[in-house]
Design brief:
Layout lengths: L1 H32 L2 H25 L6 H33 L1 H8 L7 E2 L5 E7 L8 E6 L13 H10 L2 H7 L9 E4 L8 E6 L9 H17 L4 E5 L10 H14 L5 E7 L4
Parallel strand pairs: 2-7, 3-5, 3-6, 6-7
Antiparallel strand pairs: 1-2, 4-5
Length: 277
């Protein structure tokens, strides 16, 4: 009985240790890169390492690998050991983004409120204002992978505004679609809003962070879905610039590039949020 309780307690301690270590590394990764993909890998690696240490402690029965040692190594030493390479890699990444030859062109891409004519006959405009007041056929909601039930979430930003003004109907409908691939898009009704549809995109991963790929895939798939619906105009926010943790200027540039590469033949508005008053 005592041995069983010890095993359960040790397992619980290691799980806490793994979560703590992963949370530290995840926060560092998000801060340095603004990407969810690496963060998910960190969570998985920390969890596997924690269980591996637990098994080693049980099988080897070594004092150095006791539950307390495992907790100490995983909770304190492991993040300290892995911190320097994370910081060095992050600093190098940030420096490359800032000083690389492509940085200047990235900062200019997609900026400004002027209309841009696209080869397919579509137009792209970057405007400031309220997404839910744009005169378009459909709007885009920056959603998630649709794995956690919507009623357990407290939507913020654009999703929160849509929930307050459109009602719960769009979220009930998107829940029926099941899990959405990262960067995928699902169309639902617009509830109380005066649009033909709302297109929900999975712009953030399971770690609640966005990446260049998830943002651009979300943009392309949203436009493809709008074309399927016969929409002639689409308004979308800066996908991944809020909860996703990516800088707005980068999001704007990546989305603008994706719009230019798409085959959508209507009007596209990228809306920078500006509160009223």
């Amino acid at each position: 009985m005592v041995s069983t309780l010890f095993t359960v307690a040790a397992l619980f301690a290691v799980i806490l240790m793994g979560c703590s270590s992963a949370a530290i590394l995840w926060a560092i990764s998000v801060w340095l890169r603004g990407s969810g993909t690496r963060s998910e890998h960190v969570f998985a690696a920390a969890g596997l390492l924690g269980f591996a240490l637990l098994l080693a402690a049980r099988w080897l029965e070594s004092p150095m690998l006791s539950a307390a040692s495992v907790l100490l190594w995983g909770w304190v030493v492991l993040p300290v050991i892995l911190l320097p390479p994370f910081v060095a890699w992050g600093v190098a990444t940030r420096a490359w983004r800032r000083f690389s030859p492509a940085a200047e062109s990235r900062s200019r891409l997609g900026l400004g409120d002027e209309s841009v004519q696209l080869p397919a006959g579509a137009s792209l405009r970057v405007v400031e204002g309220d997404l839910l007041r744009q005169p378009v056929d459909v709007i885009v909601n920056p959603w998630n992978r649709n794995i956690i039930p919507w009623w357990l979430l407290l939507p913020q930003g654009v999703s929160g505004a849509i929930r307050r003004r459109a009602g719960l109907e769009p979220f009930r409908h998107v829940a029926r679609a099941g899990p959405i691939p990262l960067g995928g898009a699902v169309a639902t009704g617009a509830g109380r809003l005066p649009y033909k549809a709302i297109i929900h995109v999975a712009g953030i991963g399971l770690s609640w962070r966005a990446s260049r790929r998830s943002i651009q895939d979300s943009t392309r798939n949203a436009l493809a879905k709008a074309a399927e619906l016969g929409a002639s105009s689409v308004a979308m926010p800066l996908i991944g610039a809020g909860t996703g943790g990516v800088r707005p200027a980068e999001v704007e540039a990546w989305m603008s590039q994706a719009v230019r590469e798409s085959a959508f033949s209507g009007e596209v508005l990228i809306v920078r949020y500006r509160g009223e008053g």
